[in-house]
């Protein structure tokens, strides 16, 4: 008998992370980087959550498909995710669109991003494929979902979550029977159907799919030969299996990982500037909805070597302090007050500044006498002395990107375009 015969199913699985989407709703935050590479939670990147879930679930073969402005993402993965070892039957493959299939160019859809690398997948011969979106923030044990997939005999198992109905327009929405079998699947409907008996709630796809590898290969080859297909999991592969095979829903509540203190099953699509800002600021709560301090389910990432965070000056009107905030290594808060904010690595806040609701990405610098409220400052941006943001909505909108909910995004290009 094989030594892996009684091992967890995750040991027979390969995780395949789709990380090529631009994420246009994050506006200028994705002008230089793809959405999964955007910084989150003071020291991580968004993609670290899907990758960490795979590692913590016991999956030791991982592929990541990249496409749009991938350099920042590829560099991050090379630095932080290079610990998997082939001699232990582990692998980590970065798979940019590279015309591996005759006549192919860029990935034309999520399914095509897997199809173009089928030769690599089949060489590893995993029993299961766990297809993951690389741009969501959550903690989940994929082993639980794998166990359900195996027990149900499904052709595809789809991870799903309940969302307010009119927020489901950006998701795949499904109907299920009492046993969890999917009877209908609509990708990004303009008028999402409600769950039976719950008119304000829809059952939405998380962009997580589990297939037996052999069946997936068959479906991808069938789909690739269809000139009418958009070669997309949500638009083509899953609806076909709903109609012609057996598609099952897996509820996120059954596999969400918590440390016990959280009040909800946490999953976020941080796809807009408002959602991105809010998810970061929520981490400053005394008991945040997402526990990053759970040592039993760590969020792996590339940890840059930095000195400790530092707070200097203790004079009236010039006191370096941070309250209800996340402050990373390499940060220096010099004679300024920081409240309910997130400071990524190597941020500098100079004297006589007041920050509230500020998300400052790595290497940002806030010069003297500035007041910032409800802002996201891109990496490497140096704010001029005396800058005031968050007190005059019209002035903020004139100079920077201001959202409907009052969050201001600041990039270096916006600052450079200001009249001198």
UniProtKB/TrEMBL annotation:
An example Gene Ontology molecular-function term: glucose-1-phosphate adenylyltransferase activity
Binding residues annotated for alpha-D-glucose 1-phosphate, in chain numbering: 107, 172, 187-188, 205
Site (Could play a key role in the communication between the regulatory and the substrate sites): 67, 106
Reactions the enzyme catalyzes: alpha-D-glucose 1-phosphate + ATP + H(+) = ADP-alpha-D-glucose + diphosphate
Keywords, ordered alphabetically: ATP-binding, Carbohydrate metabolism, Glycogen biosynthesis, Glycogen metabolism, Nucleotide-binding, Nucleotidyltransferase, Transferase
Enzyme class: transferase
Domain Glucose-1-phosphate adenylyltransferase/Bifunctional protein GlmU-like C-terminal hexapeptide, residue spans: 307-410
Residues in the signal sequence: none
UniProt-recorded name of the protein: Glucose-1-phosphate adenylyltransferase
Domain Nucleotidyl transferase: 16-284
EC number from the UniProt entry: 2.7.7.27
InterPro entries associated with the record: ADP-Glc_PPase, ADP_Glu_pyroP_CS, GlgC_bac, GlmU/GlgC-like_hexapep, NTP_transferase_dom, Nucleotide-diphossugar_trans, Trimer_LpxA-like_sf
Subunit annotation: Homotetramer.
Family the entry assigns: Belongs to the bacterial/plant glucose-1-phosphate adenylyltransferase family.
The species this protein was found in: Teichococcus globiformis
Domain of life: Bacteria
Function (record text): Involved in the biosynthesis of ADP-glucose, a building block required for the elongation reactions to produce glycogen. Catalyzes the reaction between ATP and alpha-D-glucose 1-phosphate (G1P) to produce pyrophosphate and ADP-Glc.
Pathway field: Glycan biosynthesis; glycogen biosynthesis
HAMAP family given in the database record: GlgC
């Amino acid at each position: 008998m094989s030594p892996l015969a009684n091992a967890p199913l995750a040991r027979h699985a390969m995780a395949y992370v789709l990380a090529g989407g631009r994420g246009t709703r994050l506006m200028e935050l994705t002008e230089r980087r793809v959405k999964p590479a955007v910084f989150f939670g003071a020291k991580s990147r968004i993609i670290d959550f899907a990758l960490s879930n795979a590692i913590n679930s016991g999956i030791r073969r991982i592929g990541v498909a990249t496409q749009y402005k991938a350099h920042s993402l590829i560099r991050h993965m090379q630095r932080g995710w290079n610990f998997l070892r082939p001699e232990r039957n582990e692998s980590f493959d970065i798979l940019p669109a590279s015309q591996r299939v005759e006549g192919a160019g860029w990935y034309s859809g999520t399914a095509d991003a897997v199809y173009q690398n089928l030769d690599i997948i089949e060489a590893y011969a995993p029993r299961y494929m766990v297809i993951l979106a690389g741009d969501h923030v959550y903690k989940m044990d994929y082993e639980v979902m794998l166990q359900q997939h195996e027990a149900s005999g499904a052709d595809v198992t789809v991870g799903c979550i309940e969302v307010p109905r009119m927020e489901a327009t950006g998701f795949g929405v499904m109907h299920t029977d009492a046993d969890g079998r999917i009877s209908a699947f609509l990708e990004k409907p303009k008028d999402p159907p409600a769950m039976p008996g719950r008119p304000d709630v829809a059952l939405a796809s998380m962009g997580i799919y589990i297939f037996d590898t052999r069946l997936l290969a068959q479906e991808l080859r069938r789909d690739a030969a269809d000139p009418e297909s958009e070669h997309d999991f949500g638009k083509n592969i899953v609806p076909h299996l709903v109609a012609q095979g057996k598609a099952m829903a897996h509820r996120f509540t059954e596999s969400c990982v918590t440390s016990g203190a959280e009040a909800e099953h946490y999953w976020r699509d941080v796809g807009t500037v408002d959602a991105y800002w809010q998810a970061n600021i929520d981490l400053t709560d005394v008991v945040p909805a997402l526990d990053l301090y759970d040592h039993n389910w760590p969020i792996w990432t590339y940890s840059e070597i930095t000195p400790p965070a530092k707070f200097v000056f203790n004079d009236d009107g010039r006191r370096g302090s941070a309250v209800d905030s996340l402050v990373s290594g390499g940060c220096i808060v010099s004679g300024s007050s920081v409240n309910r904010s997130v400071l990524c690595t190597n941020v500098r806040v100079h004297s006589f500044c007041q920050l509230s609701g500020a998300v400052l990405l790595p290497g940002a610098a806030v010069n003297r006498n500035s007041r910032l409220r409800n802002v996201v400052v891109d990496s490497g941006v140096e704010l001029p002395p005396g800058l005031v943001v968050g007190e005059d909505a019209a002035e903020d909108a004139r100079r920077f990107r201001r959202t409907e909910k009052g969050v201001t995004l600041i990039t270096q290009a916006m600052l450079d375009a200001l009249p001198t």
